């Protein structure tokens, strides 16, 4: 399945009505992420600390966290990135359907933990903050807190792959002064 199929998911994610389930959307997106239908050769490899110095995930919205534990020790965070806080990625707009998608690939994942999740009545979970705890020279624990008190923790190798896609499926390359060069293949 080509990346172009993401537009259907994108529209559903951006235009989702209150109470509409994201299970099917998340399942379809997970398949595309895990089966390699994204242009990972255009991703940027960057230390998680450097990424968070350049970008904020504040007020961005979770789509999901996906793993392929049958094939590799990676996890993929899919986030609808708030461009109001990240103008180097995309033109700021209050229309969520126009926000870019951020794909973060965490490598050498050794633990994932969810805590504090409660029913919030079908509301999209927005990210409040992200903190990084250094466990060793190469391993970190990245903790995403949402606006409702839930936490998502991922223990992983400190370098991540970051990929930004626009709603029309183009790879977004943030201003060169704010990010490292794409990975060579």
Describe this structure as you would to a colleague.
It is a single chain. By secondary structure, the chain is α+β, with helices and mostly antiparallel strands. It has one domain (3-176). 15% of the residues lie in helices and 31% in strands. The protein contains 3 helices and 9 strands. The chain has a 5-stranded antiparallel beta sheet. A 4-stranded antiparallel beta sheet has the order 5-8-7-6, with helices on one face. Helix 1 runs antiparallel to helix 2. The longest helix has 12 residues, at 23-34. It is globular and about 40 Å long. The protein starts with 5 loop residues before the first helix and ends in a 20-residue tail after the last strand. Residues 1-25 and 176-185 have low confidence and may be disordered.
Q: Helices and strands, in N-to-C order? A: HHEHEEEEEEEE
Rg estimate, integer Å:
15 Å
- Report on the biggest sheet: 5 strands, antiparallel
Overall spatial form: globular
Q: Helical region count?
A: 3
Average pLDDT for all residues: 80
Read across the widest sheet, the strand sequence of neighbours is: 1-9-4-3-2
Overall structural class, as computed from helix and strand content, comes to: alpha+beta
In whole angstroms, the N-to-C terminal distance is 22 Å
Q: How much of the sequence is in beta strands?
A: 25-35%
Helical amount among residues, as a percent range? 10-25%
The counted number of beta strands is 9
| Total of domains | 1
Low-confidence stretches: 1-25, 176-185
Write the layout of secondary structure elements.
Elements: H1 6-14, H2 23-34, E1 44-47, H3 48-54, E2 61-67, E3 75-80, E4 101-106, E5 111-115, E6 127-134, E7 139-146, E8 151-157, E9 159-165
Antiparallel strand pairs: 1-9, 2-3, 3-4, 4-9, 5-8, 6-7, 7-8
């Amino acid at each position: 399945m080509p990346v172009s199929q993401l537009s259907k998911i994108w529209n559903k994610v951006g235009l989702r009505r209150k109470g509409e389930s994201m299970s099917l959307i998340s399942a379809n997106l997970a398949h595309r992420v895990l089966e390699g239908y994204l242009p990972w050769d255009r991703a940027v490899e960057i230390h998680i600390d450097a990424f968070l110095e350049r970008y904020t995930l504040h007020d961005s919205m979770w789509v999901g966290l996906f793993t392929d534990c049958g094939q590799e020790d990676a996890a993929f965070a899919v986030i609808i990135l708030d461009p109001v806080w990240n103008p180097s990625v995309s033109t700021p707009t209050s229309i969520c359907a126009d926000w870019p998608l951020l794909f973060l690939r965490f490598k050498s994942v050794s633990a994932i933990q969810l805590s504090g999740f409660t029913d919030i009545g079908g509301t999209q979970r927005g990210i409040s903050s992200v903190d990084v705890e250094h466990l060793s020279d190469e391993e970190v624990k990245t903790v995403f807190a949402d606006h409702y008190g839930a936490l998502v923790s991922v223990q992983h190798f400190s370098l991540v792959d970051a990929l930004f896609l626009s709603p029309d499926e183009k790879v977004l390359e943030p201003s060169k002064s704010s990010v490292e060069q794409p990975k060579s293949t």
